[in-house]
Each structure stands twice: as structure tokens, then as C-alpha cells.
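Many introductory courses stop at the sequence. We go one step further.
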Amino acid sequence: MTDLTESLLDSLLNPGIGRNAEQQFKAITLPSRIHGLFSLLQSSLLNANVNANHAKANANASRNMLACVLLRRDISSIAGHVSQHVHTQMQPNENDIIAMLNGMVQPLLNFFQQPLQSQVQRQLGFIIAELCSALSILDGHAATTTATLVLHTIGHACFMAHKPSLDLLASLAQRAPFAIQQGHIHLLSNVLQAAAISCAADAATMELQLPSRHHLACANSILDVLLNISIASDINMRKNAPNLVLNTTLSPPSANERMVQMIQLQTMAETDPKKKTIQHEGPVAALGKLCLPSLLKIIHACTLETSSNVNGNINGSNRDEIQTLMQSISQIAAMCPSLLAGDAEILALVCHVLLGIASRSEEETRLAAVEALVTLTMVPDVKALFQANPVLLNLCIGGDNENRSGDGNVNGVIHTCADVMINGVDGDVNAWAQQNVALQEDAARWEDDDQATFAQEIMEHFITSIGAQSLGVVLGLVEMMLASKQWQRIRAALAILEICLIAAPYSFASHVPVAVEAVLSFAAWDCSCVRVQFQAVQLLTALCRADEIGEDGSGAGGGGGASSSGRPKLGVRKQHAERILATLAQLMKSECTKVVGHACLAIVAYCRGGNGKENSGFCVDKSLLIPFSLDVLTRIGNGPLSLNIAGNVDVYIRAFAAVACWADVTQEHFEIFYSTIMPGFIECTGYGLERDATGNFTGRGSSADEFVALRGGAIEVSTIVGQAVGECDGLFHSDAMKLMQLILPLLESQESNNSVVLIPQDQLLAASARIACVMKASYAPFVPRVLPYMLRKAKEKADVSITDGDESTAGQESQFDEDTGMETITLALPGMGVKKLVLNTAQMQEKAQAARAVYEHANSMGAAFGPFAGDCVEAFLPLLQFKYSADVRATAAQALGPVFDSACEYALSATNADHATLPQKVYSPIVLSMAKQLMDEDDDDVETLSAFSEAMSNLAYSAYTHANKNVRACMTCTEAKQFVSAVIKVIEKCVLRRKVVFEHMVTGSIDEDQMIEYEDLLSVQSDFLTGLVDSIGYTLKTLKQLFVPVFDSAVAPFFAPLLKASSNIDAKARLGAICLFVDCVEHCGAEAAAKYGPLLIDAVTEGVEDKDLELREVSIYGIAQLARRAPQNCLQNVACQLIQNLATIAKEGSEKRKEDIQNIRLVEYSASAIATMTLFKSSPFVQLLPPPQRTDIIKIFLANLPLLEDFDEAKFCHDGFCELVENGDIDLTQNLTQVLKVVGEVADAVNDGDEMATQETCGRFANIIAAIQSQLDASLLQQAFANITEEARNGINLLMGQ
């Protein structure tokens, strides 16, 4: 059956003996290899005890180790082998292989129990675990039987804390979680409790000695078992969950299906403690309560005075074991927190032990202990447990320096982290100052500060979790540190202030003025220590990022439910702009270029604003920059941009960024600096490049990394500045042409894989996109020369490989090679073995950058880009399902939006049939592909989800708007149902996730910072939800009555229950539901309006008085549509109430100018709705009002005209206005000025291209003007004409000329 021999194994051990040994080994079929390896191993182990030859024994040991390693590796792949050959005449067949694996278990267990070399015994344990894993895939019943056999066989040894048996148990739970059933867990609870007690009792017999390394190692093995058993329990619960989105068939799953299921479940394990919950009554909490006290007792013994050295620190001989224990506890805190916090007493014991270790260890171990504790506090439910035990919470925050416990002083998390932040920094300031910061590195990090940086990260997580309750201790400590003369303490204090700002921005807001004063003081250019100065600039950058923290979604925070009482606005720029910019400008002359570069980045932050998050920058009010432009730009020019380029490229590029952001904010006000600054930037774009005799670039030059970076930065700043002043009399046009003369030859010369890069292609393409933004349609001649490079990048086959991996690296973090751009990760996959996945992440980034460049080109050029739309769709449509990068998928989706829009615009005038029909050909494939991919995206990847949602909405909107212009781009009804069904599934998941957030918000256990964090999350989800709903809405509007079957079968069943607040507290979900029902009433015909109007009326009546402004607006809009299109009886019972409410809202339009009304859309919709209900011939309640009330409503309606916010409503109401004038309902004598104002301003707007009235209505306007001229006194007319706006006078003159 096999050709495997001892000599072949010996050859594998000694490749020089037989070079073809590995090929011979691989040529043997996998089942035969497994059988042969097992037979050789079995024979060798049986003969081991009778072999007296020492040399031969050593040879056998080496051969046995190799056989074990190879056998385990092959067993790990056998299930995948079976699934691949399931439809072939594979011999042996699946049943034979299962029988072979089953037959191996008992012999291996027998050998495992014998006294063997420890490494061989350990490997045997791994093989047994791998056998269970393979059987879990091939035969679940056999796997459970095998697991039971293993547990009974090694149970007694585990009971006695036998480490190899405990390690086997941990491996079994890790590799074969499906084989661990609930009955096993009950048995294991007793075994592990006994093991922990046995280990602790044995350690205690050593009287005054430190627990031995053996005892600590056993304790760690028990922790590993607890962790893996808990994960196995969780996996099995998810496996059996009724709503699990996995393959669940009525028939028994195949081996391949089981393997996929195992991979999904084991790779879906949640590792973010913020998303974990504490299950107090579950099996995991019970395990912790039984087993942890004895284990913690062993660890705690390490903190006693008798086990410490003369310095009070834990004896160094056990440092590695204690560090490993801390890492295990940290992993448990992240993945199975119920083990540590399922019981209040256990939680308290864990905290005391970890704080004890943190108080009596060297830096690395201290941080490991604190990290474990802080990881546990990151679990939301743990904070509620701390609130129930304030003494414990205060101990964790500030420690117990009064020695109340009798175990020596215990430092809290804050003091421990602060101490490491002080003492863990590099003391060589000169070395720090002389080392430039690479552009791809975080400027605030320094490799010799690793311990301090780690402590800083831990403190940030802790303050984020605990919030305001920690600030008292933190700020008291900071005050003392700032008063110190030691630069390390001051630096650490400034770093802690930054942590507070990031981790608890709202609680810290009242302390921001003090932080600003401190930062401006220590950032002074003549500060004695550049490290303090640098840290002050770092804090100033954070303050600028957080300045707009109160602007993000204040109020309901994304809709409904609980909300914060108010968001403090820091106002850092408004109050301190002059001092901040003066300080940063002064720093431009610092002798430390590291400080200069960081000050440039602070200017970037000042310009971009933000709400405390790195990726949320937005341009600030230009008035906060313009007064300081001359000083800041002059200092940058005379400072960093005057340095010798050699050795200072990093500073130059940061200065480029500062200027670019300044220009981006000040826009046309940057024009006065353009002629001074731009020539230098243009010169830098060609620095070190060769030119021909005519001065043109040849595409050759210096390829030194720093020069490549310099030119790339220069071309970025040049085009950003050019884009900023682009509207200023063609100021940038000539420079844009110069830049294109550089870009085009470089794109051509760098096309081949082996070419020398002079400016990175992504920067060339991004620069050309900015130039396109300025040149717009006139850029079209360049597109054929630039676009092919983008499309080639998009179409490149993904550079990905999957090969057999090295098990020693399995499960480790991915490794990135900066030289090749390749990222490597090794995974142990059930049924497939250890696989190494290698991805060219640099290529992924290039694909994403190409998509962004196409987006900018299409968005800027409009119809002029249309001829190239087909090629772009062909390139980017497949990338919507690009499985290796979410960024590529997201950018491809975003690019397709303007590409499709340009195709539609071009189709309006296209004579080529392919171009004219392209929108119809590509629309359905694009949006259906997007909807399908949305269902598969990670629910936590908000950026990707939002990108798809927004892109899909834009596509649907473009299809709808262009359908009105006779460009056909719509789905069939079958496609629409498929599309809508997919989108609704995504909406359902989003609504359910929002529901969980609302439930957390009303618990009362979260503080203000967490409340705002939830509101921000809801706000992001709200934007995502809006895009999804709009996608359905625009599809409905495009298909109109053809959409009714889709509405009946898919939309109404899901959204109807979401219409009312009584069944749905999520205002944004209600908003989406009401929008779609209103759209149905408005666009799907009278029959649909009659069917769904009654369902809608209660929702909009309730919505008129809702707190959510958007919900109120759409509810009032819905009332207008119901009044126009639904049967009268829909509104009959609520008409009087609605008229009263609408009149109250609309009345504001008669009391204030439009520009003074805060919610102008709400007011205008109310005026439109009440007029629709009561004033026109078609109004359902035109007879309901008595004459005095009707007159009052006419006055309110007239005062709100013209309507400016919604042109569809404006068209209807302006036509209705004509009806009222023509019928004499509006007295021309009393209302002459307002009538002329309405008629004139609307006519002027229509002449300017705003569709505020139809041509028919404008004709009625002309007749009204003619009637006024003939009926009213000329002096009265002249007086009224003088009192209206210039726009109204222009409009009337236009009408009189008709």
C-alpha cells in the first residue's frame, strides 16, 4: 500500500543523502503517506523500549519526531483531499479513510501514556487532536466518539495536573471544537477544577519558595484549556444557532460542506472585546468560577514579599512564565471574558492579582498585566460590573497606596502606565533629534520608546472604557508632572492630555482651555527640550483635529432613542487662532527639523479640522486662515522650504502638505500668493530629471528614493494649489499644461515592470485627475493617453498565491515586505492544513488608486468622459467582487457612479448606437452586482458599506433622472425584484444592529462619551441606511406602476411594520419606511395609492410631531402626496388636526424672511401640504374651511411663495397660485407687492435654468401681469414694482416681453 520506508525518512532528515527524497515523498498519495507514516511510527515506538543501542535510539528519536510532524501535517489535509475527490473513484474511498483514522486513535493514545521523550509525546498529542479535527469534517459522530475516548483516557492525568495531558486537551479543543459537546464540557469542568486545585496545592507545599516554573507552566496550560474549551463552546452555540447564515440543509452535510462550515465558524470568532458580552449563567462563566480561584492563587503567590527580590520586584527566574500567563489572561479577556467576569468575586480576584503583578514586575511584565486588565475593562458589560463595585473600580484606576490589603502597595492602571511612559522613553535627545522621520512612519513614534508607546496605548484604551470616572486621578497626576523639571515627565504629561482628548473628548472638554495654555507654553520655539516641544505640537495637532467635536450630528445622533444632553464645542480655533498659528509659524525656524516637520503637520490638522477622529477631516471656515496667510506662508517659505533639499526631503514634503491644505481652504484667496509659490513647486516636480535640447522631459533622471518622494510631493501640491485657484481667470491653465508635459512622458516611460520609477504612478494619475477637475471638458484630448494606464492597473490579474505553509508561523500576524509590496499570512485551516497566503498589497493599492483617478476624471468631465465609459465599466465592474481587498471593491463602486452618469449624459447626444444604448446595457449588471456584494461585506466595515450604498444610490438616481430625458436605463421587473430583495436583506441587518445600539443607550450604564460614540455610530449607519432606501426609491420612481408587484411582495411586508413609533423607536428606519410608502403613493398610480394610503396616514400623522427633523419633513411631504393622489377618505378622520398642525408650522413663513427660518424646508412643505389639502379646485377638503379660516390659510400660503427648496413642489404650488389669482381668491389690490414678487422671482429663476415652474405656468404668469396692468392703477403698480427685488423686476420685464 505504501513505498514509505525508514530509509526515505532518513533521506528527508539528511537531504544530502538523497536529493530526490522530497519528490519521492510527495509522489506517494496522501492516504498512503498517512498509513505509511503511522505504521513506521508505530513500529518504531513499539521497539523503542527494547533497543539498548544508544546511537540507534538517538536516530530513532529523530526519525520519530519527523514522522510525527509529517503525519500531523498530512492528517490536517486529509479532509480537504476527500472533499476534492468526492466525485472520483478515489481509492481508498471516504469510508476507508475514516476507518483508517479511527484505527489510529487508540494506539496513539497508548503510546502517549507511555514515558516518552517529551517532544515526541507532545507531537503525539498534536496528532491525536488533528485526528479529531479531520474526523469532525468527515464523520461528526466518529469525532465525538474519539473525543470521548481521549477525555476518558487522559482524564485522570489531567486531574493530577499532568502538563502533557493538559496540552493535549487544549489542542483537542482548539483543533476539533465541533467534537467537544456539552456533556464533555460538564466532565471537563470537574477535571479542570481538580487540576487547578492539584497544581495550587502542590505549589503551596513549597512553603516560602516562589511557585516553580513547572507550576506556572501547568497553570498556563490549564488557562489554555479553559480558553479553547470556552471558544469551542461558543463555536458550537453559533453552529446550532437558528439564524446562522451558513449552509443548512435537511440532508446531512457533505465533508466539503462541513469543512467550509468549520472554516467559517473558526475564522468568524470575534476577537474585539468591545463586541463581547458577559454571559453570567452560561457554561463559560461556570468554568471560570470553578477553576480560576486556584489558578489565581498560584499567580498571586508571585506577588508576595517572600517571592520578590530585594528591589520588591518579582523574582526574574519566573519572568517568562509570568509574562506568558499575563498574555494568556489577556487573550481570554478578549475572546472569552465570561471566564474572568462571569462572577463578581472572580472579577475582583482577577483585578487584584493583575494589579499585584503590575506593581511588582519589570516594565514588560507590568505592561502585560495591565494590558490583560484593560482588555477586560473594554468589554461593555464589565463597566456595569465596576459600577456596582466602586471600590474595585477605584482600585483599578488609582491603586491602593494606603496598603489596606496588607499585600504591599498596589498601583492602579493610570499610575502604572504613566510610570512606564516616563521611564520607558529613550534618554538620548540628540539621537532622537538627528533621526529624520520616514514619510511612511508615524512622526510621533520612536523605536527606542516602544515601552512608553505601549503604555500610552494601554492608558488610552482604559480611559476610553472607564471614561470620566478616571479623569480625576489622571488630571491630578498630570498637574504634578507638568510642574516637574524633568523633560520625561513633562513629555509624558502632554501625551496623557492627548490621550484624554482622544479617549474621553466630551468629559475632557471643560479641561481643554488648560490644555491649550499648556501646549502653547511648551511649544514655544525657544523651549529647552525639543522632545517636549515636539510632544506639545503633537497635542496641538490633536486639539485641532478635535476642535469640531461638537458639530457632528448633534441632537438625535442618527435617529431616535436616547441621545446625549449636548455636545460641547471646543472652539479652539475661534478662540486661539492667532496664538496657535503664531506658535506654529515661529517653529518653522527651529533648528530641529523633526519639530519643523511636525509643526507643518499641525498646520495640516488646523486646516482640515475634524471631530477627533483621524479620518474625519474637513476644511474649516476660511476666515480662520485668511488673516494669517501672509505670515504663515512666508514662514514656511523661509523655513522648511529654504532648507537644503539633500537630507531634508521629509521636511519638504510635510511643508508641501501644509501649503496644499492652506490653499485648499482659502481657495480664491490664495491667488495673491500663487505667482510667488507655484514656480518653486513646478521646479521641484522636475528635480533631478533629464530634459532634451528643447527643454522637454525625456522620462529619464535620478531614481533615488528621496528624489522620487520629493517630485511626487511637489506634483501633488502643485495640482492641489492649481485646483484651489482654478476658477481665477485661468491662472492655473498654463502650469497645468506644463505639468501634463511632465506627466505624459513619465507615464509612458514607467509602463514596463522593470522601468525606473521617477514619480510614482499613483501620484501621476491623481495629479492628472486634479488637472481634469480644473480643465473639465477641455481635458478630453489627454484622456486617451492617460486612461489606459488606469484601466491596465484595474485589469491586472491579482497577484496572489496560496501554498503550503510553515506551521511555526501559523496564526501569527501578517508580515509585509516594503521592498516587494507583498504581504504574507499563514493560517491553519481545518481540512486543508497550514497554508501560506501571499498577496501583492502594493498592487491592491494601485487598483484602488486607479479607481479614484477614474472617479475624479469622470466626475469632472461629465459628458466629455462618456466615450470612455464603456471601457471603464468593463474594467471596474469585475472589481466589485474583488475578494482580496475591501478598498478595491469600495473605490471601484464609487468610480462606477460618475462613469455611469457620464455615459448617460453622453447618450443624450450620441450618434453611435453603442454609446446611446450603453446605459441600458450596463445599469442592471452594475447595481445587481453591488447589491449582491453588499450582502457579503463585513457588517463592521462601515467605510466599505457606505461606499457601496452611496454609489448604488447615485447610480439609481442617475438612471431615474436621465429616464426623464429619454435615456433608457432601467431594470426589468424581475431584475428589480432581485435587486430590491437583496437590498432589503442588507437593510434588515442594519436595522437589527441599530436596535442593539439603542438597547445599549437606554440601559443607563453608559457615560456621556460612550453615548456620543453610539450616536456617532448611529449617524454613520444612518447615512448607509439612507443610501440603501434611496436605491429602492429611485428604482420605484423609474419603473412607476411596473414596480407595484415588487412593492407588494418585497417592500411592503418588510417596511410596513417599521412605519410607526409604537413598534419602532429608530427614527431613521421609520424615515426610510415612510419615504418608500410616500414614493409608492406618488409614483405607482391611483390603485397603489388607494391600497397603501391607509397604512401611511397614521405614520405621517404621527411623524408631523416627531423630534427628528427629516422625519417631520417627509411626513408633511407625504400628506401633500396623499391629498393629491389617494382617495379622500384616507385623510378624512385626521384632516382637521393636520390642517391645524400644518398651519402652525407654515405660519413661520409669514412672520420671517426665508433666510431667517432655520427649518425652511419644513415650513415650505407645510405651506404646500395645507394648500394641497384646502385651497385648490383639486383639493380634497376645499369645502371644509369656513371663509375666514380659508382667507388666513391663503395669506400663509402666499407669504411662503415662491417655494425654493423642492422644485417639484414649487411647480405644483406656483401653478396653484395662478389658479387662486385667476379665481379672485387672492386680492390683487391688497397683495400686489407679494404677487409681483412671486411672479417675478419665479420667472427670473426659470430663465436662469431653475425648474421652479412649467412653461405653461409662466404663460399664466404673463397673463396675470397683463391683467394687473389693465385692471390696476398705474401709480399703485409703480409703487409695488419699486418695492420688489431686482430679481423680481427682471422676471416681470421678461414676462412683459413675451
